[in-house]
UniProtKB/TrEMBL annotation:
The gene is mvk. Catalyzes the phosphorylation of (R)-mevalonate (MVA) to (R)-mevalonate 5-phosphate (MVAP). Functions in the mevalonate (MVA) pathway leading to isopentenyl diphosphate (IPP), a key precursor for the biosynthesis of isoprenoid compounds such as archaeal membrane lipids. Residues 84-172 form the GHMP kinase N-terminal domain. Its cofactor is Mg(2+). Its EC number is 2.7.1.36. Belongs to the GHMP kinase family. Mevalonate kinase subfamily. Homodimer. Keywords: ATP-binding, Cytoplasm, Isoprene biosynthesis, Kinase, Lipid biosynthesis, Lipid metabolism, Magnesium, Nucleotide-binding, Transferase. It comes from Natrialba magadii (strain ATCC 43099 / DSM 3394 / CCM 3739 / CIP 104546 / IAM 13178 / JCM 8861 / NBRC 102185 / NCIMB 2190 / MS3). Gene3D superfamilies: 3.30.230.10, GHMP kinase, C-terminal domain (3.30.70.890). The lineage of its organism: Archaea, Methanobacteriati, Methanobacteriota, Stenosarchaea group, Halobacteria. This is Mevalonate kinase. The active site is at D164. Pfam families: GHMP_kinases_C, GHMP_kinases_N. Pathway: Isoprenoid biosynthesis; isopentenyl diphosphate biosynthesis via mevalonate pathway; isopentenyl diphosphate from (R)-mevalonate: step 1/3. Its main location: cytoplasm.
């Protein structure tokens, strides 16, 4: 078995606007997805997953004449997870030239699915890394990030930025603007996550922002304003000014709310964090449900969130310095 892991991420700033060429600053966190692969002697793909915050499941691919997945799980999130793996293994086949290779794939993830913590990017990065290594090829992080981006781009019908996949492949805090991806120096950030137990539909949420942007000039201006907040955020990050980071995160959340991607539970958690004294709080990722990220060096926010109706889980997350990790 060849096993790789990759971290999830939070967006300090810039989700959604990054899709339209504005900069974004995601930050990898020490919550990981692990993917193990074993080469098969046929060309099938068999995916087994436990701990995806849902019941374990097993899916076999490649059963019919067209090689289409033979999926017998109904939960759309699980089906989506297997689509990411299917597409990731296509990249493995493409990189290595082994077009007919099949794998048994095992996924274990501590990252809730579709909740704004980059679960799909982490699974894709780990799957491509393990798959290529199993065939004797070790990719550099930049190439791994590019292949993972192409996977997300395909599965999400062209609605993906490079932010999640680059951050998961390289670790640390990163800045992404269009095709330009680079690592940033970051202080030790006091990150607290609140999770409402739900998930957002990334494709629908991205399409919603696109619609608003096309309909209203002020919505397009709002997206550009997110870019301004991000540029200020970069300066605060470079200066290690955590209080200013929090203020700017509050601003970013307000703009995301205006663009229609927050939800009652996300807003409730954001306000609970602010009331508890967090420097700032915002939703992270596509929104619609899922997670918020707050900055608070004390235990107050975590405690307050754990008593907040609608918050299913609250936890502290360390910044993940390391991106993809080669386990065996
Ligand atoms: C999703 O994690 C972040 C979005 O900006 C989409 C993307 O960047 O691909 C909403």
């Amino acid at each position: 078995m060849t096993v790789s892991s990759a971290p999830g991420k939070v967006y300090l700033f810039g989700e959604h606007a990054v899709v339209y060429g504005e900069p974004a600053v995601p930050c990898a966190i020490e919550v990981r997805a692990r993917v193990g692969v074993e080469r098969r002697d046929d060309s099938k793909l068999r995916v087994h997953a436990d701990d995806l915050s849902l019941d374990g499941f097993t899916v076999e691919y490649g059963g019919d004449a067209d090689g289409r997945p033979d999926i017998d799980v109904s939960e759309s999130l699980l089906v989506a997870a297997t689509q990411y793996v299917d597409s990731a293994i296509e990249q493995v086949r493409d990189v290595t030239g082994e077009e007919d290779v099949g794998f048994d794939v095992t996924i274990e993830s501590d990252i809730p699915l579709g909740a704004g913590l980059g679960s799909s990017a982490a699974v894709v990065v780990a799957a491509i890394d393990a798959g290529t290594r199993a065939l004797g090829t070790t990719l550099e992080p930049a190439e791994l990030a590019e292949r993972a981006y192409r996977t997300e781009y395909d599965v999400q019908d062209g609605q993906a930025s490079r932010a999640d996949t680059f951050c998961s492949a390289t670790g640390g805090a990163v800045r992404v603007e269009g095709d330009d991806c680079r690592s940033l120096d970051a202080p030790d950030l006091p990150i607290v996550i609140g999770f409402d137990g739900g998930a957002g539909e990334t494709g629908e949420l991205v399409a919603g922002v696109r619609g608003l942007r096309e309909e209203y000039e002020f919505a397009a201006d709002t997206v550009e304003t997110v870019g301004d907040v991000v540029r200020n955020g970069e300066q605060a990050l470079a200066a290690g000014d955590v209080e200013e980071l929090g203020r700017l995160m509050n601003f970013n959340h307000g703009l995301l709310s205006a663009l229609g991607v927050s939800s009652r539970s996300l807003d409730t958690m954001v306000w609970a964090a602010r009331d508890a004294g967090a420097y700032g709080a915002k939703l992270t990722g596509a929104g619609g449900g899922g997670c918020i990220v707050a900055l608070d060096p004390t235990d107050e926010t975590e405690t307050a969130l754990s008593f907040t109706p609608g918050c299913e889980d609250a936890f502290r997350a360390e910044l993940a310095e390391e991106g993809v990790r080669r386990i065996e």
